[in-house]
């Protein structure tokens, strides 16, 4: 079957550098992912390939341009993610996904939901006081919860973040571990610490912990607590 061709015109020339990528890296990625040929001249883009693939790539370019117009700038990592989403589902609404980005800190920038399930999880946290999330390991439950907590703390929606996890014994009593209560439970909170340190500078995390803005509590110590204006994460 003879391949089709279609020419697109980008309305905003300022979008070209981030959309095309350094040395047209993003265009090459799109060509490989959708098995099409892309040639460009200034703001003109010519697509050559199967009609279905051309339609998907056209939709991708148009949606990325609309994101820019809506003041939702996309970086290289975001474009790679958008390409993957469109390859998995050509009908994906990128604006719906990217509008739920979580602004965490200058270090990390934004945390973007990696699909409809994570998007729904973020929306649930924004709309509800209590959210229960169940799923396999590695699906972003803890990471997204920490991101939402950090965003809320930095925007002063909450006065503190309370990290709670059961102190599951593994052959030795919690009381025999060295240090204060924070030191004793630290080994059980590493997934939460990993997420915090990925989003914020180490010294900022320590400063917030020293000020009590980030608190570490074993589940057994939560009974009877009064926790106003707090974002509480009970992990497993």
TrEMBL record:
Keyword Nucleotide-binding: yes
Subcellular location: Cytoplasm
GO MF assignments: ATP binding
Domain PhoH-like protein: 111-236
Pfam families registered for this protein in UniProt: PhoH
Keywords of the record: ATP-binding, Cytoplasm, Nucleotide-binding
Major subcellular location class: cytoplasm
GO CC annotation: cytosol
InterPro entries: P-loop_NTPase, PhoH, PhoH2-like
Entry's family note: Belongs to the PhoH family.
Protein name: PhoH-like protein
Taxonomic source organism: marine metagenome
